[in-house]
Specification:
With 236 residues, the chain is mainly β. It folds into two domains: 29 residues, no CATH class; 202 residues, Jelly Rolls (Sandwich). Helix content is 3%, strand content 45%. Strand 13 and strand 14 form a beta hairpin.
Length: 236
């Protein structure tokens, strides 16, 4: 449910009843928001971890010194090449797609790339077709990828994909994927200026939020997910 706040008035500025009414309506047709701060509850309450393979299932944990730590959901692969740790959002208690591209979904993650190998594709997060296995080619979705130490924006249809280089990734950042009717925009920390905009291979199937990491060259890979949220703007 979205609380709309459109009219912003300066002190002593005259307002109108229509602005007041519009400004205080919870509008189900305009926006639906799903936020998960990942604090306290078991990960499996809202997330499915069945696509984890060989690695450790994502688990809520406090990282840092006693009394000074920070709570994350930690995805860890272990050292064997090809191990995967993965989590995808549930719907009605089971793994499922939760939004359509026609909803114009926006997913935002606060995430730390704690340890990954500098060679190969090692991490991906954003919107994906739920049933698709992590790290397979041409996944249907709109998401971020870490490959060869670089951050990419990716759009895929399931048959083809477009990957746009953004550059070196920050260890900790906020990442946003915004699916629009004609393009998909990717943001890193700045939520006003896209780091990449892709107009080809926009996904056309239902999607869910998913975060995955894979080990390469027998090097342990770790992601730490701080918070994640989904907005479905539902505007044509």
């Amino acid at each position: 449910m979205a609380a709309r706040h459109k009219a912003i008035k300066a002190i002593l500025e005259v307002g109108h009843a229509s602005e007041w009414n519009d400004d205080h309506i919870s509008d189900f047709t305009d926006e639906v928001t799903d936020e998960d701060m990942l604090l306290g509850a078991a990960v499996t309450a809202s997330w499915d971890t069945a696509q984890t393979s060989g690695g450790s299932a994502p688990v809520w944990s406090v990282v840092g010194a006693a009394g000074q730590g920070h709570a994350f959901v930690v995805l860890n692969t272990g050292g064997a090449t090809g191990n995967i740790s993965s989590m995808r959002h549930k719907l009605g208690g089971a793994a499922s797609n939760i939004t359509s591209p026609d909803d114009l979904p926006v997913v935002t993650c606060a995430l730390e790339v704690a340890a990954v190998h500098t060679s190969g594709t090692v991490a991906e997060w954003g919107l994906f077709a739920s049933a698709t296995s992590p790290f397979t080619a041409n996944q249907a979705g709109a998401y971020f990828r870490v490959n060869n130490g670089q951050l990419y924006a990716v759009c895929g249809t399931g048959a083809a994909e477009t990957a746009t280089l953004i550059g070196a990734y920050d260890q900790y950042a906020q990442y946003r994927v915004e699916v629009n009717s004609a393009d998909v925009r990717f943001y890193v920390d700045s939520m006003t200026t896209p780091a990449a905009t892709i107009t080809t291979n926009r996904p056309a199937v239902d999607l869910t939020m998913k975060v995955s990491v894979i080990s390469a060259n027998d090097v342990d890979s770790t992601l730490r997910l701080d918070a994640v949220g989904l907005q479905r703007l539902r505007k044509k």
